Amino acid sequence: MQEKGNISIHTENIFPIIKKFLYSDHEIFLRELVSNAVDATQKLKQLAGIGEFKGELGDLKVEVSFDKEAKIITISDRGIGMTADDIKKYINQIAFSGATEFVEKYKDKGDEQQIIGHFGLGFYSAFMVAEKVEINSLSHVEGSQPARWICDGSTEFEITAGDRTERGTDIILHVNTEDSEEFLNESRLQGILDKYCKFLPVAVKFGERDERVEDGKDDEDKPKYKTVKKDNIVNNPVPLWTKSPADLTDEDYLSFYRELYPFSEEPLFWIHLNVDYPFNLTGILYFPKVKKDIELQKNKIQLYSRQVFITDEVKDVVPEFLMLLHGVIDSPDIPLNVSRSFLQADSNVKKINSYITKKVADKLSDLYKKDRKEYETKWSDIGLFVKYGMLSDEKFYDKAKDFALLENVDGQYFTFDEYKTKTETLQKDKDGNIIYLYATEPAKQHAFIQSVKKKSYDVLKMDGPLDSHFIGTLEHKMDKTQLKRVDADTVDKLIDKDEKIESVLSDSDKEKAKELFEKSINDKNSTVSVESLAADEMPVIVTMPEFMRRMKDMQRNGGGGMMMMGDFPDQYNVAVNANHPLVSKILKSKKEENKETLARQAYDLALLSQGLLVGEALTQFINRSIEISAE
């Protein structure tokens, strides 16, 4: 048997296109060829299952080998195999999918969802690294003759009689050492197999490994050991996500997480995905312990298609806010482009996206209802996912508002409804708005927190990386509710109840105090006012208006539209407490120089309480304090 001919294609020469454009990374060739070998093996198992193949299956593992001296890489299987006619149909006519005919022929005899294309464009990825490719195959059909196909990367091919004596296929790559010598390296090939073939459903052998085994006892009845050669099986054919959740323990899930992310902390909890209608989807998603840097957490979800690794760029399949999760998603219904490297958006992707969102919301809701206290202990990590979702997904917000928590500076947790009940009476202003007070840096804002606590007001802790954005969302969603940073104004203005406090200073003294502090401060970006505050409040209170505070917070936490705020100087309001004894003492001082010194000192104390006193101004304050103490 000998035949020569031209490959049937729709372009003069498809190989340059394959090499340059079809695959972005040449290492993909091994994934495609090993996947094809696995497909051929699974087809044979299916035929045996429905009685179409009655022979012995035997050892069905796929084997990858290489010969550095001969410059050859070989991928072998004991699967369905091919006749010469099969090769002409499935290899030469690459526009025709071998899977299509196979599925059509056997669709009523088995689960066609488990069949994917045997050959086709995936096979031609071999020419990215090979200057010549051979196929040596023997079909499973009784009486078949072995066939050999050879092609040197042009459109010409040759088919001759093969010499394979066992059912299956060898793909032999004669590596182009000028471009692809790196692939004639054991560690390089092992790395590719680990990356793409780690969970293929058929055992994949790559060479051998040493294993220490027990070999009898010594004279002291202690075990002896010897080193033996064992097949180096690179994959786990039955990964955790393919099993029933009912058959798995917590330790199984934790062990699998360690297998995926060997250097990570243990996850908080996980979700096992398993749906077969209206699309097929399996997988396990883990909630990790989240760090402050959100970007470092992303792209940790691995996408598989029938246990073949595709990519960790899953932004179209998984909602943006759940990119912080870790784990595995496997779906044959996610459409991939011809190279299987990139996702293509369609209705199934949108359905899967919505399904995953719903499963996450249901899991969080169950955790909250099952054990509120335990849920609260995890909130510092869970909260980032929840807030991210509520910011980016309207439907998720509607679900999450029942299990989202607000934490106050005392470490107490409240649902949205609980916190409204807690504050709606005491923290309502003259216009009927409920005012939620919050702190972004409780330690630095301690003086302001204590000031509002004197009125029995509560203060929320909003110090997370998303909280500056989350505040705006809460105001938008909650009726007649405003959020104000605790150091954005004096306590009576934060929640204006239209209650007047009498001033111990006359109008004339108030004006003198205003002029004195303006002169002492001498800052065009600070606005001084003299206000009638409680006598136990600070003598001087420096605040930044809520609008500017919020814009600055958003800019610091990545609010792109707020970058222009960096061009504006900080604006501060300086409230001089007309009822504080120190202010009266300053005004009564006989020396003008002493008045200015004490006024500046009171102002610097206010800056110091917020960590705003730095550099030369801090040094001057220290020296001035020493001088005042010595008098």
TrEMBL record:
- On the tree of life, the source organism's domain of life is Bacteria
Give the protein name, as stated in the record: Molecular chaperone HtpG
Family, similarity comment: Belongs to the heat shock protein 90 family.
Record field: transmembrane: none
UniProt keyword terms in alphabetical order: ATP-binding, Chaperone, Nucleotide-binding
Gene name for this UniProt entry: htpG
Q: Matching Gene3D superfamilies, A to Z?
A: 3.30.230.80, 3.40.50.11260, Heat shock protein 90, C-terminal domain (1.20.120.790), Histidine kinase-like ATPase, C-terminal domain (3.30.565.10)
- Enumerate the NCBIfam families for this protein: PRK05218.1 (NF003555)
User: Could you tell me which Pfam families the record lists for this protein?
Assistant: HATPase_c_3, HSP90
- Cross-referenced SMART domains: HATPase_c (SM00387)
Limits of the Histidine kinase/HSP90-like ATPase domain? 25-165
InterPro entries reported for this sequence: HATPase_C_sf (IPR036890), HATPase_dom (IPR003594), Heat_shock_protein_90_CS (IPR019805), HSP90_C (IPR037196), Hsp90_fam (IPR001404), Hsp90_N (IPR020575), Ribosomal_Su5_D2-typ_SF (IPR020568)
Coiled coil where? none
- Name the species this protein comes from: Reichenbachiella agarivorans
